[in-house]
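Could you help me review a protein record that somebody else here produced? What it holds is a sequence and that sequence's fold in token form. I have pasted the whole thing underneath without changing anything:
=====
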Amino acid sequence: MKLNGEVLKRKFLNGSLGLTLISIVLGFLLGAIILLVAGFNPLEAYWVILKGIFSRSKYISYVIIYATPLIITGLSVAFALRTGLFNIGAEGQYIMGAIMAAAAGYFFKLPLILHVTLAVGLAVIVAAIWGGLAGYIKARFGVHEVISTIMLNWIALYFSNFVVTLKVFGSQGTGKSYAIQSTARINLLSDWKISEAGIEFIRSHKVLGDILKTPINAGIIFAILLAVLVWYILNKTTLGYELRAVGFNPHAAEAGGINVKKSMVISMLISGGLAGAAGAFQVLGVSHRIAKLAAMEGYGFDGIAVSLIGNNTGPGSVFAGLLFGALKYGGSKIQDAMQAPTEVINIMIGTIILFVAMPKLIRLILTILERRAKN
């Protein structure tokens, strides 16, 4: 029985889940050290963060709102990585999806479900084409996807800034587009038609009333469904098998009769479409418009971190996205409560990613600790 316990322990510590959890713990430890050096009590700071996440239902709602686009962009990056491609262009694909969702949400006038479906569908198609373009450039000309997607990110950024200056679409002088129609919004409570009795019940209920004050939306439901879809495509379909085979070894896949170039384009099409969906849900559920951008918003780049922490899997991206959302929202509370620098949150996240990317180092540390314990 003891031997079985040791085997299970070793498997857990050497497995992806165990290494990820150890990386998270190390990230929090380094964050604590930095807080101590800066003159702050790390236990007090972490308690503030926990309260900033769980003490009110409204805070949990905001964590979910923060996490939703991160989960979906994480899925976008994870899908590409599982198929042997590094989609650093999720940021640009997110922007293109947001532009299309804002345009479809404003210009079309349709019933609620049809309007949302059309806006999301068009956003996914446009972003998929944007991502597929990078896949085609690699397949046709051999240009690495990191280079092409970085360039496409900047094109998307400046195209977005140009679009909001158009009189037909942008509110002149504000740097913002016109707000989308109410029928294109996916806010769960505030923008959907509810009976007067239902509204009174919600307002009388403390938790529901608290949630009503936030822009909580159906995006998180779609994010979870997309995570299941990504898992299913990669693990239960012929297409997923072919894409993963190309990711493992493109030369062996080609020898086995798989069209590697075609697979590259398809992979980037799907990856880009996922990132575009993130942009669409953010517009339809939170911002309801797009605005002029001074710099990248960072959702696509954060998606890379979410994917790595989630071990490039659908379920992993969901949990990693929620962790990021919680740290980003709860971490902002330490500055208000104790004037501690919020930059420590980014340091923690960076440390977690660093250790996730270096599993051999963690295994070496565990081996050294185990030897010392035996001696």
Remarks:
- The beta strands are 170-171, 176-177.
